[in-house]
Amino acid sequence: MNYINLKARAKINLTLDVTGIRDDGYHELKMIMQTVELYDSVYIKKIDKPYVKLKSNLEWLPTDSRNLAYKAAEIIRERYKINKGVFIELRKSIPVAAGLAGGSSNCAAVLYGMNILFGLKISRKKLAEIALELGSDVPYCLMRGTALAEGRGEILTKIAPCPKAWIVLAKPPVGLSTPAVYKAIDSLNIEYHPDTDGIIKAIKNNDIYEISSKLSNVLEEASIPMCPMIGQIKEKLLLSGAIGSLMSGSGPTVYGIFDDIKKAENAINVIKDEFKIRDVILTKIFNA
Ligand code: C5P
């Protein structure tokens, strides 16, 4: 095998709770993660030269060790003493620095792809350990589907697949720094925490309406003051027929859940029109 083509999918958070701060500075999290169909294409090809070469369709995206996909390939080459190199081409469709785990998902795809391409037979457990060295969301991106993520995000419990629904993603045209959002939450008194057990029950009952009524992300309390458009888009999505709406991860992307594609398409027009934003995308819940 000389090359491999993979789909690195985006994720949304159905819930995100912060339950404490750890000694290492990371936060103790409890969140329900869900894969959506939206993906970046990741093409990985063996090359004879002994290095990693990364290319993407976004000319401003770093193609060196600042890119998690590059780092993933380097770490596998080093640890498994691979003499050959790889050429990686990313075709990005997932908005960057958006709370959708695009970079983490590219990284997970490279770990998975290198394992197959070079016949390394790295166990799932070992691959998940390497994934965590690269980022808190990377182990989940290897697993995909509907999952409860705890600890830094790496303690993963698969739950029943979330029922199918249409998802509208809308990203305000600002970058929110993840460390800044987590830092801001430390000085706030979080009064309302997600009902994680309740939403897991709703997922098991296949009840998209109950799920939508329980969407909750404590990081909104920090992000909305930094970017009020997050709150405004949420409101507009609900007024346009979404059955639930939430900010994903540390933002700034907001999503709406729809039970009807016509309403979803109409909401996209409303959001584009009112907020003049480019990244408004129709996708679906994805379960492998
Ligand atoms: O692990 P990763 O590099 O993706 O994390 C990015 C940033 O998100 C961290 O530097 C930290 O500020 C914040 N974070 C956190 N607690 C977590 C995960 C991420 O504070 N469990």
Task: Give an account of the 3D structure.
This protein is α+β, with helices and mostly antiparallel strands. The chain is about 35% helix and about 30% strand. Strands 1, 2, 3, 4, 5, 6 and 8 form a 7-stranded mixed sheet that branches. Strands 9-10-7-11 form a 4-stranded antiparallel sheet. Helix 1 packs parallel to helix 2 and helix 2 runs antiparallel to helix 3. The two termini are about 25 Å apart. The mean pLDDT is about 95. The site of cytidine-5'-monophosphate has 11 residues, from strand 2 and helix 5.
How do you describe this structure in short?
The protein is of the alpha+beta class and 288 residues long.
Largest sheet: 7 strands, mixed
Order of helices and strands: EEEHEHHHEEEHHHEHHEEHE
| Molecular shape | globular
Number of helices: 10
Which ligands occur here?
A: cytidine-5'-monophosphate
Topology, number of strands:
11
Radius of gyration: 19 Å
Spans where pLDDT lies below 50 across 5 or more residues: none
Mean pLDDT: 97
Amount of helix: 25-40%
- From the N-terminal CA to the C-terminal CA, the straight-line distance is 24 Å
Structural class: alpha+beta
